[in-house]
Design brief:
By secondary structure, the protein is an alpha+beta fold. Helices cover 41% and strands 25% of the residues. The protein folds into two domains: 172 residues, no CATH class; 83 residues. The strands form two sheets. A seven-stranded mixed β-sheet has the order 1-2-7-6-3-4-5, with helices on one face. It has a three-stranded antiparallel β-sheet with strand order 8-9-10. Helix 6 runs antiparallel to helix 7. The chain is elongated, with a radius of gyration of 35 Å.
């Protein structure tokens, strides 16, 4: 398993997806792709999301140049979105509220976070900071600034990175010791009889199979004709016959031992 902080912060394009779980993390390589993913999730999937963008100083929109902004979209009761806009670099009394929709140009770094996936572009960094029973809590940074926390399901995190490897101290506190617990068989007269009866049924079934197989082998060996059956098959049939006969004898002995044991236990129970 990989260290989360090293793998996810490699700054190489990647798509991390755990089979069987509807959650993924993707580092994308262009602002146009980021815009497409944002539009698709907002307009087609109509999902709740948070978008954080740090713009370059050369951004043509003057009030956005060199600043970091957040757009938080939440669905309302009439099937539309409530949008919260926030400038994270607000300077004093400067009015930067209600600055409109995001512009996908002149971006230094950006993170798009939904309940089921995370998209990252440019100068971004992530950190796994806490382990809970159902989620791993992570922090998202854009250009060195911590902009938001998000959660990855523990099953997904374990598949992709390994919970024990990334949280060696917290794992036992959250999930307890993971030593394999061997089932304990409690011997009582009732369940002992049940186990013995089950074992007897299995042995008797195996005995019947041995008998049928042995009969087939005897017919094969007795009717062997050199024109149809090779000497190799004949020799192996003889070996198999001997093995099955020995097995049948052993099974017969086991059956008798169990039957005798059941009779003894029955007599003891009657004495009480």
């Amino acid at each position: 398993m990989a260290n989360f902080n090293e793998k996810i912060n490699s700054h190489n394009e990647f798509f991390l997806f755990a089979d069987g779980y509807d959650y993924f993390i993707e580092r994308i390589g262009s602002m146009r792709q980021l815009e497409r993913e944002f539009d698709y999730r907002l307009k087609v999937l109509k999902g709740v999301c948070r978008l954080f963008i740090q713009y370059k100083d050369t951004c043509r929109v003057q009030k956005m140049a060199g600043r970091c902004f957040m757009w938080a979209y939440t669905s309302n009761t009439i099937g539309r979105y409530d949008v919260r806009n926030l400038c994270l670099d607000r300077d004093g009394a400067e009015d930067l509220d209600n600055f409109g929709n995001p512009t996908f140009d002149y971006i230094t770094g950006a993170v798009l976070i939904t309940d089921k996936n995370v998209y990252t572009y440019g100068d971004t960094w992530f950190e796994a900071v806490d382990l809970e029973e159902k989620h791993v809590v992570c922090k998202a940074y854009v250009c060195g600034r911590m902009v938001s926390k998000f959660r990855i399901p523990t099953e997904v995190f374990d598949r992709l990175f390994g919970l024990k490897e990334n949280f060696p101290e917290q794992y036992e506190k959250v999930f307890g010791k993971t030593e394999e617990v061997k089932p304990v068989r409690v011997e009582t007269p009732q369940n002992t009889n049940i186990y013995d009866a089950y074992e007897l049924a299995c042995l008797m079934d195996s005995n019947r199979l041995c008998s049928d197989f042995l009969s087939s082998l005897i017919r094969l060996i007795g009717g062997t004709n050199s024109h149809y059956v090779s000497k190799d098959v004949y020799d192996k049939s003889q070996v198999a016959r001997k093995a099955v006969e020995d097995l049948a004898i052993e099974i017969g002995i086991s059956i008798r031992n169990i039957e005798d044991g059941l009779h003894v236990k029955g007599d003891r129970l009657c004495e009480f």
